[in-house]
Amino acid sequence: MTDSFISIRNLYKIFGPNSSAMISRAKSGMHKADMLKEFGHVLGLRNINIEIKKGEITVIMGLSGSGKSTLIRHLNRLIDPTSGEVIVNGTDILKLDRLQLLQLRRTQMSMVFQKFALLPHETVLTNAGMPCSVRGDDRRVIDKSAREWLHRVGLSGAEALYPHQLSGGMQQRVGLARALTSNSELMLMDEAYSALDPLIRSSMQDLLLELQEDLQKTIVFITHDLDEALKIADHLVILKDGEIVQQGEPQHILLNPADPYIEDFVSDINRARVLRVRSVMTETISGSTDLELLDGDENLEAAILRSKGEAGKTFAVHTAGQQVGTLKMTDVLKALVPAARRSNPSNAE
Questions:
Q1: pLDDT along the chain (349 residues), means of 10
Q2: Rounded to whole angstroms, how far apart are CA atoms 230 and 126?
Q3: SS3 state at 193
Q4: Which residues contact 33 (CB under 8 A, 6 or more apart)?
């Protein structure tokens, strides 16, 4: 599916008592620090334009203060923009009145929070079914749906427990089940896994990808962790000081950083584990039947292991049973070196 589910157009957000008067200064390029120093206003977002495709995971990432959490709060209008448009599933949400907005939040979107946001006095089952309860659905239907989703996230048998009886990872699974029980097409996940230990965090990422393969939800995921972003994103948006520095397919960004900021951002990534064969291969189709086959979605680490140290080896790359290209190990070795170092080898340490 390629249709846009969300369109964010020319979005600006300025915090302060006279924010509308600051728009012209923001559009003329005034820096965030200068606006704060001279006028006491905070430039949260500047000229954000993103097309979020239906059925994909769009990851919005950046360091603290980059504007990523401010941006996701525009999608359910917890924050209103100073200027710009937010179109969700064909609806201009800035034109909705209070009741229409409430209906949109209840039926078309769900949210998974960093701090879990479970009700401590309610059971796991009741917490998981909360979105349906708010809508006034039948209790038996709610419990049936909640049990099914708790089972999908690995929490069968925990229905009668309370949040304080669960580990952090289990609590976040309840939060995920709650979002899925709502049966909304759009899921907003704001630093959803940031509070979890690394191993639990990795398992939650795997669970999300496993569920997404079946459900094809439209997911907007906020993170400050590049490894997490590269693992789960179909489309990656990188923010700095409230502006988009680069956006696109994660593999493309890693191989083609747009400026020194992005180069620094991706410099310490384990490229062999993140880059995929399909991103490095050439589209040349070899007529040789002697070439070993390699799946396009394998990472470069797998290709290196398969090559057994033969730098001159070439593989036929297949996807869904069809050859789509050819992978030369010499290209793999080049891809392991960041672009900046390839263009200026004297900078290599």
A1: 83 95 94 94 96 96 91 94 95 94 90 82 94 87 92 92 91 90 91 85 90 93 90 95 94 90 86 91 78 91 91 90 91 84 58
A2: 34
A3: coil
A4: none
Check residue 327 and give its pLDDT.
Answer: 93
Q: Are 229 and 219 a contacting pair, CB within 8 Å?
A: no
Tell me how far apart the alpha carbons of residues 237 and 8 are, in angstroms, rounded to a whole number: 12
Is there a contact between 331 and 307 (Cβ–Cβ < 8 Å)? no
CA–CA distance, 43 with 32 (Å, rounded to integer): 5
**Strand, coil or helix: what is 201?**
helix
Residue carrying the six token digits 């990851």: 59
In whole angstroms, give the CA distance from residue 84 to residue 41.
Answer: 18
Phi-psi category of residue 49: left, alpha or beta, with phi > 0 → left and psi -120 to 50 → alpha = beta
Alpha helices in the chain (DSSP H): 19-27, 32-39, 68-75, 98-107, 124-128, 130-135, 139-152, 168-181, 198-215, 226-232, 250-255, 260-266, 271-274, 277-280, 300-307, 329-335, 339-343
| 3-class SS letters over 113-163 | CCCCCCCCCCCHHHHHCHHHHHHCCCHHHHHHHHHHHHHHCCCCCCCCCCH
Tracing tokens 């939800």 back to the chain, one arrives at 217
Interatomic CA distance for residues 335 and 337, integer angstroms: 5
What's the length of the chain?
Answer: 349
d(CA 43, CA 36): 8
190 strand-pairing partners:
222
